[in-house]
Structure formats: C-alpha cells, structure tokens
Amino acid sequence: MRSLLSVVTASIVLSVGVMSEAMAGKEIITTLISGIPHSAFFGIDLENGEGVAVGAGGAISESKDGGKTWKAVAESPTTMALLSVAKRGAHSIAVGQSGAVAIVQDGKWQTVDSGSKARLLSVDVNSSGLAIVGGQFGTVLKSTDGGKTWAPSAPDWSLLALEEHFGTGEPTIYAANVTEAGQITITGEFGVMMRSDDGGATWRVVRAIDPKAPTLHAMHLVEAGKGNSYAVGQSGALLISADGGETWTQCDVATKLNFLGVTASATGQVVVTGMRVMYRSENNGMSWVAVDEGDTITDWYQAVRTDEASGRILAVGHSGKIIQIGS
C-alpha cells in the first residue's frame, strides 16, 4: 500500500506545532469544485490518476486526470446518500444509506443487492476483488467478486460485549481496509479495532472495546516496515502505528474536535480532516500544525486521499466541495 519515508516509534515524542499554516504565511488550499450549500461529498478514492467522489443524493463524480478536474456521472443508479467509495484495479464500489451498494459493471455504475438495510459507512477493495464493508450496529459485509455479491462477515461481537455498557455488542464500524494480500482491518465505535488474516473468515482483537475510548472514524494503513499508519476519530483522537497497525501510540494534538479522515503520501505529508478542524504534518507525523485557511475551521471535510501517482492530496466535504491540500 502507501509507503512513507520514516517510522515513528513509541520512544519518540510527538509534538504539535505552535504556528498554524495561515500564521506561517502559507496558502495550501485549492478549491477544485464546489456545489450548492445543501450538497455534500462524503467519500473519495484515487488510483493511477483516476478518481471517484460520492455524496448526497447518490451523487457520483469522476476524474481522469488525478483529481484536477471532475465530471458528474449523468445518471446515478441510486438517490440514497453514498458515504464511502473504494477504487482498486478494475473494481469501483460505493456504499451508503439503507444498505445501498453501487459498482461499475460494463463501464456503468449499477446498484447491487447487499443483503442489508443498515447504513453502510466504509468500504475497501483490493485488485483481486476482495471487498469489505463496515456499517452501523456492527454490520460487516464481505465480497470476493468485486462487489457483485455480498455475505455477512462480522466478528462475533457478543464475545467482546460488556454487559454493563449498552451498545458494546454491536459497535458501529466507520473504517475498513483490505490489503493486496487479503488482510482485513476494521475499526469504529468504542475504539475497537479488529483484524482478519484469512480474508474475513476469522477475526482477532487489535484494540479491545473500551466504553471510554473515542470512536475511530478513519484509518490509513501501510505494511509493517514500510512507514507509519494512522487512525483518527472523536475528540481529536490521533493514533500512529509503526508496525502496520498492530500497536498504536496516541499523539496528543491541541484539539478536542472530531477528526473524520486521514491520508499520507510517500513524501511524508500527512493530512487529517474533520469537523471545523484540519491538521497537517510534513514529517510523517513527527510534528503537526493546524490548517486554518479558508473554511477549514468553520465547516467540515470528511474523506481525504492521496493520488500516489502525483502525490496530490484531495479532500471532500460540505457544499459539494473537492479541495487540494498542498501543492
């Protein structure tokens, strides 16, 4: 997956910059497209110079030039909000409200039956067509044919539930990741993180359910030895892993606002987006500065991704906006 230049270890002190990007005289936000106030994009993915963004009312936009320009798909197959999208090799999958799943077949976006009516919040797929979806109330779905068919694949949440804490038996899953080798990772409510080493057949605990832990909304994972992995969530939760997501170190940034997305590039750029907050690192998460340019502190940006071919970092959010962060 995505590789970085250096690795953070638990012995390194992670610091927060005292100067924001704007205070430093840097302007790093470029608005690529913007819609009406009540429109929104919730998910984006980029690969090999092509991109897909999805959002409210089933909106789908595509890019053929690494995210520089975007064109709306004329006929979306659904009016349900699409909340996440994944693109890898020949496979493109979008998921959303009421169990909605759309995939590209014969060059056209089409809906398929997920077998679920739950709100689906996250999706990932590898080039072999192994896909994983996470959603509300512990929903986890798996596909082995690029999203054409789906089957339940959740861990046995009852084994992890804490009887004295309501909801721990069905934690909402906000982020999912599948590697080219077929390793699957999911994370979400109560800070839980689960991993499957056999394509979703069995699961093991990476981070146990903790009723006091912030919900984790997004991950950026790389293989052990190839750089840093990141997970972000509620109340400024920002975790960094140097071993592919097996163990995590908390980075205490100077905010309690909610983070919604995270990405990193091969040059050491890391961007975290959220509700009225954005943070950026230029050294693989060793230090961070707040980005308070434009509307980053008054509105929200959700998903954020890196185009590996160019290193460009793009985020989506309110008002149907797609922005570029950095040059």
Termini separation: 22 Å
Major β-sheet, in short? 5 strands, mixed
* Rg, Cα atoms, Å: 18 Å
Q: Quick one: how many beta strands?
A: 29
Q: In which order are the strands of the major sheet placed? A: 1-26-25-24-23
What would you call the structural class? mainly beta
What percent of residues adopt helix (DSSP H or I)?
A: under 10%
Give start-end ranges of low-pLDDT stretches.
1-13
Order of helices and strands: EEEEEEEEEEEEEEEEEEEEEEEEEEEEE
Shape: globular
State mean pLDDT (0 to 100 scale): 92
Q: Which band does the percent of strand residues land in?
A: 35-45%
Helical segment count: 0
Name the descriptors:
single chain; 327 residues; mainly beta; five-stranded mixed beta sheet; four-stranded antiparallel beta sheet; 0% helix; disordered N terminus
Describe this structure as you would to a colleague:
The protein has 327 residues and is an all-beta fold. Helix content is 0%, strand content 42%. The chain has a five-stranded mixed sheet with strand order 1-26-25-24-23, with no helix packed on it. Strands 2-29-28-27 form a four-stranded antiparallel sheet, with no helix packed on it. Residues 1-13 have low confidence and may be disordered.
